[in-house]
Amino acid sequence: MKRRGEAASEPLKRIKKQHREEASSDEESPLLTTSQCNHHHIALYIVLTAMIFRIWQNVTGHDLCLCVCLLLPDSSQSDSHSDSEDRRPGFSMPVVSQNASATDDAKQSDANKFTMYNSVSQKLMAKMGFREGEGLGKFGQGRKEIIEASTQRGRRGLGLTLQGFQGELNVDWQDQIENALTNPSAVEELKWFPECSTEIPDADELRGWMAVGPRKLRIEDETEFCTEDLLHSLLRCKTVFDDLEGEEMRRARTRSNPYETIRGAFFLNRAAMKMANMDHVFDGMFTNPKDSQGKPQTREREGELLYFGDVCAGPGGFSEYILWRRRWHAKGFGMTLKGPCDFKLEDFYAAPSELFEPYYGEGGVDGDGDITRPENISAFRNFIMESTERRGLHFLMADGGFSVEGQENIQEILSKQLLLCQFLTAMSVLRTGGHFVCKTFDLFTPFSVGLVYLLYLCFDRVSLFKPITSRPANSERYIVCRGLKPGSDPVREYMFTVNLKLNHLRNSESDVNEVMPIELIKGDTEFYNHMINSNESHCVVQIKALAKIHAYVLDTTLSEARQADIRKECLKLWGIPDKARVTHVSSDPNSKFYELMKGSDIELLNSKPTPLSSNTLDKVHHVLDYRCIVGGGEQLFLLGLGKSQIYTWDGKHPLRWRKLENFKLELPRETLLSVEIVQELKGEGKAQRRINAVHVLDALVLNGTDVRVQHFNQRIQMAEKFVRAVSKPSRPDMNPIRVKEVYRLEEMDKIFVRLEMKVTKSSGGVPRLSYTGRDDRHFLPNGLYIIKTINDPWTMAYSKNTKRKFFFNKMTKQSTYDLPANSVAPFHVCHTERLFWAWEDGVRVHDSQTRVDPEKLSKDNVLSFIHQHYQP
Questions:
Q1: Taking Cα atoms as reference points, which of 350, 351, 371 lies closest to residue 361?
Q2: How does DSSP classify residue 376?
Q3: Are the C-beta atoms of residues 280 and 574 closer than 8 Å to each other?
Q4: pLDDT tens, 591-620?
Q5: In what side-by-side order are the strands of the sheet with 610-611?
Q6: Which of these is catalytic: 439, 548, 728, 758?
Q7: Contact, 198 vs 524, CB < 8 A?
Q8: Cis peptide upstream of residue 73 (ω within 30 degrees of 0)
Q9: Of 427, 434, 429, 436, whose CA–CA distance to 483 is shortest?
């Protein structure tokens, strides 16, 4: 008997034997029984063979694909076998047509079908028995055509086709030689609206202009300020991209835009470069604004700051550019939405963010920054006026926008209130003669054009401008307004009323559709024609740019060859260094101090002031050479390395910088000041409040600007300007910084008027001598600094004949009314030759003080000496 295992294996043996018999019945049978999987093995074998014999050098990837693909069986063909073994022509033997009626064109087509492949691949296929028009295999059951190249794009689903990308847009984006898309240039053309001669209407007339009607969410029929054909063509081009994957669109856009690589340069974002672009085109209108006579509104050597605003502009690229240009000569105020759209001041690598003060409307730093809320606009206006001596800003920038994904065609309608509120804010915070720049989108509706017309009435000149740094395919444009006219308050109040109405209608079916009658706009033919021309030319640019992106999506090999060259040209033209964006490395205070001093003798800073006494009083007999400052603490040197990285040195040897602890203050990097840390008091008795403050005595370096060689008066003026720029009145949690009040020595009696006896906390109810400053805060004075501001051998004197002060050289006997350059005492002279009159016990400087030490100088002694040596 057979074992159980042997019995079980009998069926398997019979199957194997049957297979061997079938295989021996025909010498070609292995080909007849080979599965599709074996065809794949053969294909793999061919590839490996090609690699081994280095056929890759002669066979292109396309040729090898042909070899592999034609080896694969075509699943659509029948598996039935044919007994025919006729010899079939291959690459080396032309096919003999079996159809006598075939045309010559068909024969020629068959003959040329594979001429695209080189001889090596043809021979390789011929050896395998390939016949043109048939597949490989004994019965030609393999593929007859090469597998087509993949048409899969991006991360779309397999087999997905996009309707707008199955054909052409029928837009020739290369039809003009001057077309910026095909012939890019760094030079731009600026067009202004004609000057407006119409007077600003009064409040009564404006009140009747607002038109309320059904809410409208269609743009297709807005053809009052653009032809219907252009508008519909633009919308069609935009719609094509609705279903396109975002990343695919961005890649094509990046390759197609000749100005794309400008990006943000070394700034925070692209917005900074847009501002640099427009600032150049408009002749420095923002970083160096001029009045109607062409004179600069501010000068760096003068005391007035350049005040600017930045609204709806997080993270703050516009402001970073302005502060990079003007540094501590400018002060910025900003309002934007709190949250992810907020200002990112910590990312201002190129400019000192300490000069920028965000304010969020109602609630100040705790507000929400929503510009559409009337109370926020009013609060921002009040804050600006308080911070600029009721004069307003030199210019305002606005860059508002929000996502309209899926509703791009009606972005203008969805953004109408935002546009209105940005215009309203400009009218609220600008000074007379101030400038305004604001981002707009499409301007097809009567509402939008009406807003533009209101600005046209209120400013000297208006322009709709699209900088080359703004991508040509988007609807973004900027309205630039120069010189706010006086008497524009009625328009501001009217805009405020329109915003109230929009808020009231927000959740209703009604809306404000017009801010002024369209007939009035059309009646101003110059404005109307310019508006249409601007809209239509902008439409043409957009359409061509969208068509170009469409072409670049279809053909991924297309690219702009001049992007790098254009970038260099633009940066050079705009005065922007071509360097990388890098963060500042933290500096060692000692190293930074020596760097700022530039090899000067550090020992000069160790000198202590000469005590003023009866023995040294004669040093100040040239009374007009001196200035005086009330002291309130120990004199220190203060070094700012950016933000809260602030260090102090007491001026003693050895040099040792200490971090300023328990102090909330921010200073720009590379700042070196001579200061006192003073405890300021406000109020009296139990309600008295105390706060530590920095009082500036003198300035050495201001945010990298070395001012040591300037006249003392000039240094103080610059220090006051610097302090106004870094002060943040909206932040009561921060310690204040102030510049000491400076008096002429001959006017010392003005100081004693500011002295009074006050009761302070912890004084046991005993009044103490206090000095009250300009802001009603007082501190306990400890003496008076007397500073020499004229350098030897020069001195100042008074001419009784001309009733004027003049400069006199004691060596050459030269006299002049003009300040001689070598008469200016630099910082080290002022510092080393200063005197200090200590108001210690026994020194009487206030009438209520009774104890007088005859060995010490009191008020009467010093005033008598001054009057003796100076009698105008």
A1: 371
A2: H
A3: yes
A4: 999 999 998 999 999 999 999 999 999 999
A5: 610-611, 835-838, 783-788, 626-631, 743-744
A6: 439
A7: yes
A8: no
A9: 434
> Comparing C-alpha atoms, which of 784, 786, 485, 792 is closest to residue 627?
786
**Would residue 439 show up in a list of annotated catalytic residues for this protein?**
yes
Does residue 447 contact residue 415 with C-beta atoms inside 8 Å? no
Q: Label residue 433 left, alpha or beta by phi (over 0 means left) and psi (-120 to 50 means alpha).
A: left
Q: Which tens digit of pLDDT belongs to each residue from 383-412?
A: 999 999 999 999 999 999 998 888 989 999
| Pair type for strands 626-631 and 743-744 | antiparallel
SS3 label, residue 506: coil
**Which residue has tokens 């690229």?**
317
- Is 344 one of the annotated active-site residues of the chain? no
CA separation for the pair 376, 383 (Å, rounded)? 10
* Separation CA 781–CA 674 (nearest Å): 17
- Strand 804-809 and strand 356-358: the pairing is unpaired
Amino acid at 459: F
Say which of 370, 399, 524, 698 is annotated catalytic.
399
pLDDT in tens, 194-208: 999 999 999 999 999
Classify 480 as helix, strand or coil: strand
Going from N- to C-terminal start, the domains of the chain cover: 15-76+88-94+107-149, 203-552, 589-789+824-869
Greatest alpha-carbon pair distance for the chain in Å reads: 152
At which residue do the structure tokens 């602030």 appear? 646
Contacts (Cβ under 8 Å, ≥6 apart) of 778: 680, 681, 682, 758, 770, 771, 772
Q: How far is CA 88 from CA 29, 132, 143, in A?
A: 19, 9, 16
Q: Which residues of 725-747 are buried (b: 16+ CB within 10 A; e: fewer)?
A: bbbbebbeebbbbbbbbbbebbe
Tokens of 817: 């009314």
CATH number of this structure's domain 203-552, picked from the four choices 3.40.50.12760, 3.30.70.1350, 3.40.50.280, 3.90.45.10: 3.40.50.12760
pLDDT, residue 90, reads 43
The overall pTM is greater than 0.85:
no
Q: In angstroms, rounded to a whole number, what is the distance separating the alpha carbons of residues 617 and 614?
A: 5
Distance CA 696, CA 200 (A): 47
Is the predicted pLDDT of residue 427 greater than 80, yes or no? yes
The DSSP code sequence of 3-59 is -HHHHHHHHHHHHHHHHHHHHHT-TTHHHHH--HHHHHHHHHHHHHHHHHTTGGGTS
- Tell me yes or no: is domain 589-789+824-869 CATH 3.30.470.30: yes
DSSP sequence for 210-279: -EEEE-----TT--SSS-HHHHHHHHHHHHTTTTS-HHHHHHHHHHH-TTGGGTTTTSSSHHHHHHHHHH
pLDDT digits (tens, 9 = 90+) for 510-561: 999 999 999 999 999 999 999 999 999 999 999 999 999 999 988 889 999 9
Cα separation, 485 vs 459, whole angstroms = 5
| Contact between residue 624 and residue 746 where contact means Cβ atoms under 8 Å apart | yes
Is 592 among the catalytic positions? no
Angle at 697 between CA 695 and CA 700, to 5 degrees: 115
